[in-house]
């Protein structure tokens, strides 16, 4: 930090403040974690300075021998960790990984057959008419994914997102009574819509998914099954999700982030069957900019950590702690989407406290509890104000919290929410954003949290 301070002291100061904030609060954002010192240090090296477009042994720049070593090791670890046929460790983030997956599905299933029809190998050799046919075919394809308010991600076909514009899209939700996925409904939609891509996976669904069933549905309608395991990759790596709950043996393509429950550097990855490997491999430069070699190195270090037995213990603790949090909320009379959890996240409907998600998020933050507001299914408050708060156990489990501490967290959250009331707008009307937290609560909760 002294080196940084000698150039731009404000950045050194912000970095110190960030460390203090992360240490001095309860980090319950389900998509965050604490990477190890080894992972963090690996990101601050000279690999940051190297350009390496292309893939191992096939680069568009000279002098990539050391990047090749790094990328090879990271991919080897990833294949071993997840039992995957092929791993592509270049994506800069989860969204980039999903874009690579979309591109590779289109390349494999639409571009390759179009080229074969024309008796060609390369798009550049297509006649103008065949090129137009190819472009039209790309634009005609369909994608079926989980809706945002049911817990899916923006890139799973949400209309305003690029995924909702690249593809004709439809969405599946969850059962309005139980909040659970109904595979018969997904199958019926798939039969009717006949998507090229069926996307499974979620950002805010507090339950496990049966990927064998999803694959059956995909096979029946001729779709490629793409699973986005960004949120629960750590539970897959740690063998908490096995058999039908492990997406890798069932999906054609699996995408993930590396920084959430997997506890690596910020980044993304694509795992694929051999069939899709050649098109995934062209992700850079067809979709992605030059790889972040320093981050690929840090991914290799994180995957090596995740292959240790201690990571299995960690992953099981993540699931057990989320359960403890959910039970703690239930015992205190809260309403949870689906009634509980069997993964790493809990979705609390705060409308029972008379609050919007935005008000609850802000009140909790004032008391040092860092969360994010989240839509609940059919949310009357929309995606900005929302009616839910999403909690995740990965980060505090890394800090060593166990079931008792998570129960205590449920108590602290309940104290804050039950002593918060909606505020008013400047004009005195009802506000969905402002809130009033009773005097002294924030200080008391902060003090109790510091003892955990
Ligand atoms: N996929 C899912 C399921 C996610 O929850 C997220 C992020 O929260 C992403 C993709 C995007 O990841 P990133 O922010 O690294 O692009």
TrEMBL record:
Gene name tied to this protein: glyA
Protein name: Serine hydroxymethyltransferase
Organism domain of life: Bacteria
High-level lineage: Bacteria, Bacillati, Actinomycetota, Actinomycetes, Propionibacteriales
E.C. number: 2.1.2.1
One Pfam family matching this protein: SHMT
Coiled coil residues, start to end: none
Organism the protein comes from: Nocardioides lentus
SUPFAM superfamilies: PLP-dependent transferases
Alphabetized CDD domains for the sequence: SHMT (cd00378)
Compartments where located: Cytoplasm
NCBIfam families (alphabetical): PRK00011.1, PRK13580.1
Domain Serine hydroxymethyltransferase-like: 6-107, 141-412
Site keyed Plays an important role in substrate specificity: positions: 259
């Amino acid at each position: 930090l002294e080196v940084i301070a000698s150039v731009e002291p404000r950045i050194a100061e912000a970095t110190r403040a960030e460390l203090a904030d992360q240490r001095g609060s309860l980090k319950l954002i389900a998509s965050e974690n604490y990477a190890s010192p080894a992972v963090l240090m690996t990101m601050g090296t000279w690999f940051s300075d190297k350009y390496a477009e292309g893939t191992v042994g096939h680069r568009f720049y000279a002098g990539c021998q050391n990047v090749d070593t790094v990328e090879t090791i990271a991919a080897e670890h990833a294949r071993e960790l997840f039992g995957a046929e092929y791993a592509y460790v270049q994506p800069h983030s989860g969204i980039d990984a999903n874009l690579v997956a979309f591109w590779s599905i289109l390349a494999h299933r639409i571009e390759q057959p179009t080229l074969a029809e024309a008796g060609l190998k390369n798009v550049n050799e297509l006649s103008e008419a065949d090129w137009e046919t190819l472009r039209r075919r790309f634009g005609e394809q369909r994608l079926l994914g989980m809706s945002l308010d049911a817990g899916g991600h923006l890139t799973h076909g949400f209309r305003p997102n690029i995924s909702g514009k690249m593809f004709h899209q439809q969405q599946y939700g969850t059962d309005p009574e139980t909040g659970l996925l109904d595979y018969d409904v997904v199958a019926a939609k798939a039969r009717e819509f006949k998507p090229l891509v069926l996307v499974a996976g979620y950002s805010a669904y507090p339950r496990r998914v049966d990927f064998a069933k999803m694959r059956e549905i995909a096979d029946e309608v001729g779709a490629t099954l793409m699973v986005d395991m960004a949120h629960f990759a750590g539970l897959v790596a740690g063998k908490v999700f096995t058999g039908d709950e492990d997406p890798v043996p069932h999906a054609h393509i699996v995408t993930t982030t590396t920084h959430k429950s997997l506890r690596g550097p910020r980044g993304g990855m694509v795992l694929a069957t051999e069939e899709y490997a050649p098109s995934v491999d062209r992700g850079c430069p067809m979709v992605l900019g030059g790889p972040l070699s320093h981050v690929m190195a840090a991914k290799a270090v994180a995957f090596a950590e995740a292959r240790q037995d201690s990571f299995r213990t960690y992953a099981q603790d993540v699931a057990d702690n989320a359960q403890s949090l959910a039970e703690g909320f239930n015992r205190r009379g809260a309403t949870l989407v689906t009634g509980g959890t069997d993964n790493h996240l809990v979705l609390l409907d705060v409308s029972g406290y008379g609050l919007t998600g935005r008000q609850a998020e802000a009140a909790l933050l004032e008391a040092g509890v860092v969360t994010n507001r989240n839509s609940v299914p059919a949310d009357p408050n929309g995606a900005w104000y929302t009616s839910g708060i999403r909690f995740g156990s990965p980060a505090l489990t890394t800090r060593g919290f166990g079931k008792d501490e998570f129960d205590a967290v449920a108590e602290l959250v309940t104290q804050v929410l039950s002593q918060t009331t909606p505020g008013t707008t400047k004009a005195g009307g009802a506000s969905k954003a402002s809130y009033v937290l009773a005097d002294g609560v924030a200080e008391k909760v902060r003090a109790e949290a510091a003892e955990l």
